[in-house]
Amino acid sequence: MSEELNQVVVEQVPVQKPKKEKRHMGIKAKRIISNTFVYILLVIMSIIWLAPFVCIVLQSFRCESTWMTGYIIPKQWGFDNYVRLFTKTKFPRWFLNTTIISIATAALQLIIILCMSYTLSRLRFKGRKALMNAMLVLGLFPGILGMIILYRILADLHLTQQNAIPGLILVYTASSGMGYYVSKGFFDTLPKSLDEAARVDGANRAQVLFKVILPLSKPIIIYTLLTSFMGPWGDFVFARYVSFGHSDGMNVAVGLQNMLGSAASINANYTTFCAGGVIVAIPITILFMCLQKYYVEGVTGGAVKG
Known about the structure:
about 0% strand, globular
């Protein structure tokens, strides 16, 4: 009888949950609430950021008029603006100029930046720190300060207006060695024992870089290529300053801007301008989406010194 009473008493006593479990549930609830607010904020920011691009894409397919209107969704859809862009303007020439400038700049900057980064990461020589500090200080000054003297030099070399393409490539690659920071940080994470082993086997410094280090540096190579390609592709200020007055030497940004030079041009070319903006954005978007993984690895790998 006493055993049965004890069983009843035990069954009636409520089982209390451990304090750790309650605390864990509270932390989980707070995390869910905070994540919800963060996601809502990110969605709102994404909508605000993407709204202008969506408007440009929609306007590029509008066929009922060529001027700016008070509505976004076209009443008549079609590819007339894209056909007009390639047949009535010099957009193909501008696009080719931009492609040549961007590819040549990306290739040259890649070689210069990687060689400079490897040198500063692996070699120790007199004046190394002074050189790094000098490049850091010079990099703080905006490039626009030297526009006048740069134009004067390019004009003396006959590398302006219709010959602006080699002039722009020269300017874009001239100071690329000062952008060594991220690449040097990535090379610092690679063990120096790889260099020492290759040197013991008889490899020189160039062979160590191209046959040992670079095969392990795919993320930073792609990161450098992307950043070097994106800069000239979207440049407007300096490109307009150098190639003004001659459409054959203009890049896409300068050429499209010239289409909207007056009120009459805006009314006649606004939707065509939107079509050009969409086409210009396609290569960069595809490259970034395909290589985003390596881009992030290059940034994070170069941001930490091992």
